[in-house]
C-alpha cells in the first residue's frame, strides 16, 4: 500500500510542476513590447567592470575620445563609450559599426604612468603629448574619430590603445 501512495504522490507532484510550467509559458506569451520597461541612458552602460585578484575595480571599454587635457598638473580624458555592433551595417557599409548606446561623456584622470598605444593593431608606443595632439581642434588625423580601448583602475586610466579595426 505504501508504494501505491508514493506513486500517486510522485504523479501528483509531476502534474503540479507541469501546470506551473504551462502557466508560466502562457503568462510570458501574453507579454507585449509595451510591458517591457524603458531603459534610460544611465542604465545603458557599455563598460565592463572586472574584479582583479587584488580586488581593484577595473573597467575596460571602447570609446570615442572627445578631449584630452591638462588641468591643475593632472592629465584628463573625456570619452564617450560606444558599443561594437557586428550584426548590421547601415546603408550596406562594410566593416564594424560602433553605436553610441549611452550619451554620457565620462571624465577620467589619466595616470602619469599610463601606456598609450597607437596604430591598427596598436603596436606603436606614444607619449601623452602625442596622444593629446591627436585631439586638438585643428588636428584632422583619422585618430580623432577612431574608437579607443581604455583600462580604468579605481577611476584612473592606466592604458589607452587605438581600437583595432580590421
Question: Care to describe what's here?
Answer:
This protein is of the alpha+beta class and 166 residues long. The protein has two domains: 2-35; 41-162, no CATH class. The chain is built from two helices and eight strands. It has helices at 2-29, 128-134; strands at 48-51, 57-71, 74-85, 97-99, 105-118, 124-126, 147-153, 156-162. A five-stranded mixed β-barrel has the order 2-3-5-8-7. The longest helix has 28 residues, at 2-29. The radius of gyration is 25 Å and the shape is elongated. The model is unreliable at 31-44 (pLDDT under 50).
Give a short summary of the structure.
The chain is of the alpha+beta class. The chain is built from 2 helices and 8 strands. The protein has helices at residues 2-29, 128-134; strands at residues 48-51, 57-71, 74-85, 97-99, 105-118, 124-126, 147-153, 156-162.
Amino acid at each position: 500500500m505504501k508504494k501505491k501512495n508514493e506513486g500517486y504522490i510522485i504523479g501528483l507532484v509531476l502534474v503540479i510542476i507541469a501546470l506551473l510550467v504551462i502557466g508560466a509559458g502562457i503568462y510570458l506569451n501574453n507579454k507585449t513590447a509595451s510591458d517591457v520597461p524603458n531603459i534610460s541612458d544611465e542604465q545603458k552602460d557599455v563598460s565592463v567592470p572586472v574584479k582583479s585578484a587584488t580586488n581593484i575595480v577595473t573597467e575596460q571599454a571602447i570609446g570615442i575620445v572627445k578631449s584630452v587635457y591638462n588641468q591643475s598638473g593632472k592629465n584628463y580624458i573625456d570619452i564617450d563609450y560606444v558599443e561594437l555592433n557586428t550584426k548590421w551595417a547601415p546603408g550596406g557599409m562594410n566593416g564594424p559599426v560602433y553605436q553610441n548606446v549611452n550619451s554620457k561623456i565620462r571624465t577620467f584622470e589619466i595616470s602619469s604612468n599610463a601606456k598609450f598605444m597607437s596604430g591598427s593593431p596598436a603596436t606603436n608606443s606614444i607619449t601623452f603629448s602625442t596622444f593629446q595632439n591627436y585631439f586638438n581642434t585643428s588636428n584632422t588625423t583619422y585618430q580623432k574619430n577612431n574608437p579607443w580601448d581604455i583600462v580604468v583602475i579605481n577611476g584612473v586610466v592606466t592604458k589607452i590603445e587605438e581600437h583595432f579595426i580590421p
